[in-house]
From TrEMBL:
<dbReference type="InterPro" id="IPR003812">
    <property type="entry name" value="Fido"/>
</dbReference>
<dbReference type="InterPro" id="IPR040198">
    <property type="entry name" value="Fido_containing"/>
</dbReference>
<feature type="binding site">
    <location>
        <begin position="166"/>
        <end position="169"/>
    </location>
    <ligand>
        <name>ATP</name>
    </ligand>
</feature>
<dbReference type="InterPro" id="IPR036597">
    <property type="entry name" value="Fido-like_dom_sf"/>
</dbReference>
<keyword id="KW-0547">Nucleotide-binding</keyword>
<protein>
    <submittedName>
        <fullName>Fic family protein</fullName>
    </submittedName>
</protein>
<dbReference type="GO" id="GO:0005524">
    <property type="term" value="F:ATP binding"/>
</dbReference>
<keyword id="KW-0067">ATP-binding</keyword>
<feature type="domain" description="Fido">
    <location>
        <begin position="119"/>
        <end position="298"/>
    </location>
</feature>
<feature type="active site">
    <location>
        <position position="214"/>
    </location>
</feature>
<dbReference type="Pfam" id="PF02661">
    <property type="entry name" value="Fic"/>
</dbReference>
Length: 403
């Protein structure tokens, strides 16, 4: 049998590496500076809980991009081990919970300096396998195409074994996916990229090119956004998970209904083939990819700035007070919340002294706040920390998610 000839130029350019436009370089620098300042002034314990909340929000928006309206409460319930009785909704909730857990693992590995190269085929297969590890393969997934809807069965961590329609074009041949994924990694290998700007630009272009290859039958978009999350850490703009790539892609720069179409439109733009010698050296248009990368970095910067406003220390304190007022917490509740915000942790035994009340009253204040979910501790005796469950988002983090 004759060897299969693979034209790797079909996904080129994979990177923007020569004659980087000034606007792209400036966008990369602005994103790096803004992410480096994110969360300044808040204690690490509080920031860790914000990051935990952002993982849920990231999963929520990743679902929105795929056309699934899974509420943050549904994701929290699934994380707690309770799934919707309807098989399809239950599967969506399980997928969303797995997304959150994968982000947590990525953040953990990044914090310990153990995060693998996110563009390596093994890492990408691992993301897909973990995302769908507990999927019920007896429940087919409905995929929407230009021709209508079709049912497919998810195969965790397995490259697709058939050709599919991707946006307005036929996918790359399935038997060539391994070669394209190896080339994808060779061109975007993190150890081969020198300088922060190169890694930031690689993150911007990798999102499109992975989806263009479409290595899996199902879940490519979610995997690409998890890969972007990991690449942000490698590029030094992950900010300990305090901002969401998926929120930016789902909302665009316009926000609202019109913003929801931006991601799809920009992906289609980056699909364009090269039409002349000025458009680059590969099959695809360098100009179109540059335009896409600038948009991608712009929405990322928009999200970092959005979170910087929400994490302003004074604003957070005022919103905690307002939240306490709306919940009609007893006297001392708002004050305790602000003290925990300042310190990050407060020992239960110190609450009476902080509030200048009797121990019995202090215990009542603690119980009210923990019952509301705004304060929690790892054990009944350990220090109190802030928590940000979905019922707090509207007041504490206004406009964080769309209902």
């Amino acid at each position: 049998m004759a060897a299969i000839t693979v034209s790797l130029s079909r996904i080129e350019p994979v990177r923007i590496e020569e004659k980087v436009k000034v606007e792209l370089a400036e966008a990369s620098l602005a994103l790096a500076k803004a992410s480096d300042r994110l969360g300044t002034g808040l204690p690490p314990e509080t920031l860790a809980q914000v990051a935990a909340m952002i993982r849920v929000i990231n999963s929520y928006y990743s679902n929105r991009i795929e056309g699934n309206n899974t509420h943050p409460r549904d994701i929290e319930t699934a994380l707690a081990g309770t799934l919707d009785m309807d098989p399809r909704r239950g599967a969506m909730h399980r997928e969303a919970a797995a997304d959150v857990q994968l982000q947590a693992e990525i953040d953990h590995r990044a914090a310990w300096g153990q995060l693998e190269d996110p563009t390596h085929p093994d890492f990408i297969r691992w993301l897909h396998r973990e995302l769908y590890r507990d999927v019920d393969t007896t429940v087919p997934v409905i995929r929407r195409t230009n021709a209508g809807e079709e049912e497919i069965v998810t195969q965790p961590g397995i490259w697709r074994d058939g050709d599919v329609e991707v946006r307005d074009h036929l996918s790359l041949p399935h038997d060539q996916v391994p070669a394209y994924m190896d080339h994808f990694h060779a061109r975007l290998c993190q150890d081969e990229l020198h300088g922060q700007t190169a890694k930031i630009l690689a993150m911007a272009t990798a999102d499109h090119r992975l989806n263009f290859i479409h290595p899996f039958h199902h879940g490519n978009g979610r995997v690409s956004r998890l890969m972007s999350h990991a690449m942000a850490h490698h590029a030094g703009i992950g900010a300990d998970g305090l901002w969401s790539v998926s929120r930016g892609l789902a909302r665009g720069l316009e926000g609202g209904v019109s913003g929801r179409e931006e991601y799809r439109e920009m992906m289609q733009l980056a699909d364009q083939v090269r039409v002349d010698a000025q458009g680059g050296c590969g099959n695809l248009s360098l100009d179109a990819l540059t335009h896409y990368a600038y948009w991608f970095l712009s929405v990322c910067l928009d999200q970092v700035n959005f979170m910087a406003d929400l994490l302003d220390f004074g604003g957070m304190g005022n919103r905690l007070t307002h939240f306490a007022e709306t919940q009609n917490f007893r006297t001392g509740g708002a004050e305790l919340l602000r003290v925990v915000l300042i310190r990050g942790q407060v020992e239960r035994g110190n609450v009476a002294t902080i509030l200048n009340v009797a121990p019995r009253t202090a215990r009542a204040v603690i119980k009210e706040l923990t019952d509301a979910g705004i304060l929690r501790s790892d054990t009944p005796r350990s220090a109190l920390e802030l928590r940000f469950p979905s019922q707090t988002h509207e007041i504490l983090f206004p406009n964080l998610f769309e209902g």
